[in-house]
Amino acid sequence: MEDLRQLSPFNSSPLLMEKMKEFGITKNFKSGDILLDENSYIRSIPIVTKGVVKVVRTEEDGREILLYYIRPGESCIMSFLGGLHNESSKVRAEVEEEAEVLLVPIEKLPYFMKEYPQWLDYIFRLYHKRFEELLEVVNAIAFKKMDERLLDSLEKKAEVLRSKTIQITHEQLANELGTARVVVSRLLKRLEEEGQVELGRNKIVLLSK
User: Fold this and answer.
1) Does the CA dihedral 89-148-172-101 come out positive or negative?
2) Which domains does the chain have, with CATH numbers?
């Protein structure tokens, strides 16, 4: 829980932090674990204190698209909105990097919203950030070629994981981009020939930037 104390708004409100510890449960998750699945009802709000969680949406035809990452000090705004209105989840939250997560019961949200202005400020700021990230996703799908989206995705993943060596299969990467594995494999080979990446077994080393 030490990481959470260093992050706004929690560092400015010790009482809020204490109440979150009192009501919440801290759990550890391995890479690949599912925090929240699509169509499941939301019983708690996950606040990541360590590690990285990715949020994915699956379309009716089975294609997936990566929406955004949740980093330490952040939460899933879509789970907040769904839980507040007792709606089932429209997204899947999956652990990207081994994570520690504080799970705050959904029934405590009205209390936090009423008693702590810092909590509301936290939610509004998070909502604004997620909205901008979702606009970037829409813009990429509508206006960028797949090779641009692929490189952007690798650079983003390297940033959030703080490593240019990315442990991922071509199939997993294709799922995140909502395309076919053969397309990703072909584009990765081209990027390797251009000297922008180095390909290994279930890993990609980003050489650009």
Assistant:
1) negative
2) 2-141 (2.60.120.10), 145-206 (1.10.10.10)
Among 185, 170, 172, 178, which Cα is nearest to 141's?
Answer: 178
Q: What distance, in Å, lies between the first and last C-alpha atoms of the chain?
A: 33
Question: φ and ψ at 51, to 5 degrees?
Answer: 85, -165
CB contact at 8 A, 187 and 147: yes
Q: Are 38 and 79 in contact (CB under 8 A)?
A: no
Q: Count the alpha carbons within 13 Å of 80 in the hemisphere toward its beta carbon.
A: 18
Q: What is the pLDDT along the chain (209 residues), one digit of tens a residue?
A: 545 555 555 677 788 888 888 999 999 999 999 999 999 999 999 999 999 999 999 887 778 899 999 999 899 988 888 888 888 899 999 999 999 999 999 999 889 989 988 888 889 999 999 999 999 999 999 999 999 999 999 999 999 999 999 999 999 999 999 999 999 999 999 999 999 999 999 999 999 65
68 vs 23, 36, 84, CA distance in Å?
Answer: 27, 14, 21
Cis-peptide, bond into residue 72, ω within 30° of zero: no
User: Distances in Å between the alpha carbon of 141 and those of 46, 67, 185?
Assistant: 28, 11, 19
CA–CA separation, 94 and 58 (whole Å): 13
